[in-house]
Amino acid sequence: MATKSKLALLGGPKAVTSDAGGVFKWPIITKEDEDAVLEVLRRGGMSDLDVTMQFEKEFAVWQGMKHVLGFINGTAALQGAMFGCKLGVGDEIISPSVTYWATALPCFALGATVVFAEVDPTTLCLDPKDIEHRITPRTKAIVVVHYLGHPADMDPIMAIARKHRLKVIEDVSHAQGGLYKGRKVGTFGDVAAMSLMSGKSLAIGEAGILATNDLEIYERAVALGHYERFGEEITTESLKPFVGIPMGYKWRMHQLSSAVGRVQLKYYDVRCKEIRKSMNYFWDLMEGVPGLRAHRTPPGSNSNMGGWYAPHGLYRPEELGGLSVTRFAQAVSEEGSMCSAGVNAPLHLHAIFNTCDIYGHGKPTRIAHSDRDLRQPRGSLPLSESICSRTYAIPWFKKYRPEIIQEHANAFRKAAENYKELLAEDPGNPPTLGGWHFFTHR
Ligand SMILES: *Cc1c(COP(=O)(O)O)cnc(C)c1O
Hints:
The chain has a domain at 31-262: Aspartate Aminotransferase, domain 2. It contains 10 helices and 12 strands. The chain has helices at residues 31-42, 50-63, 74-84, 154-163, 215-225, 255-285, 325-334, 382-386, 402-417, 419-423; strands at residues 67-71, 92-96, 113-117, 139-145, 167-171, 179-180, 183-184, 191-195, 208-212, 292-294, 312-315, 391-393. It has a 7-stranded mixed sheet, sandwiched between helices. The protein has a 3-stranded antiparallel sheet with strand order 10-11-12, with no helix packed on it. It has a two-stranded antiparallel ribbon with strand order 6-7. Strand 6 and strand 7 form a beta hairpin. The longest helix is centred in the middle third of the chain and has 31 residues, at 255-285.
């Protein structure tokens, strides 16, 4: 058994020897995608709306939401969702600190700001127990992320939001098509916004999308950045005087993306099912390995991990003699698998949320319109600040190839089971772990 042999890092044989073939390839592009793109390209329809509107219609049926709006990217879709929820000058959102920056940062452009909350160490999503004490009279919305494919715990979050009359924005960029207790993520809050860029699990090119059942939210998002739709069809009274010119942005989805989107969406559920089978198989093989825990919904529950975007594992160094995740990840990589330490670095520690005066207010944008200094220094969110030392990336299998998945699981198992041999030359974790952008999409 490979796990008994010497670690590759210390001169032993590698656990992974097979060629991965197409196991990691994503998105899966066929002639159907190519033909769809060429059709738009050859007729010069890149800036038209016909294919995008067709895609929106199909997406609305698939997502189970009434109003769907395509965007140039997920960042713009999130800003549209925030504006849709009437976020404005002086308002506050509550968002997790451990996420990609676009979950929170677009609120600055609206004059609003963010108060970060902790993530739950098991789900890695916004911790419902850390929300309520952060609510002030200025809080307008909670932004939830279904982080790395894991659904956030929506029942308690929605209960808190309803009690305090807050809007809920779901950032579904990591979890398109995923389920929470049998219901699709992105259908719980007032509005969902998500990225569909090429690295995500629903990968259609540079693109984003917004979905809501609230017509006013939809029309406000239209008003901000979709000029051709901001016409006589608008029904929201407060918007009517301004139809014709949008409120400052141009956010139409590129039709080469929506053409790909229509094809990708058709096969998405089937392809995700194979991803889930593969990833669950990987974690089943890892059952009982010391120090390593799955980041997944409980098997047999009615929740799932969607397309399992950028999968990660939970790390318990206390079970491995304190071995740093950095050293562990290095050992796994030397075995021929892929592993890196950490997830997103916590946003509250970055200068953009602390000292940067983006718009020339004469003070940091984070507190430009605040009634108090709500910045959160190092030490204020201890769990978020330590989460990178307790997480690691694992391979993202798109195809169910048991022999290949076994080799990769062996690489992880081998590094963990031989942890004592790694302790001697463990340099420990560097002062900062995790990235502001993200992992290599593979
Ligand atoms: C990718 C991502 C976004 C931004 O989407 P883009 O399409 O890259 O603009 C927003 N939120 C999260 C959580 C993301 O991972």
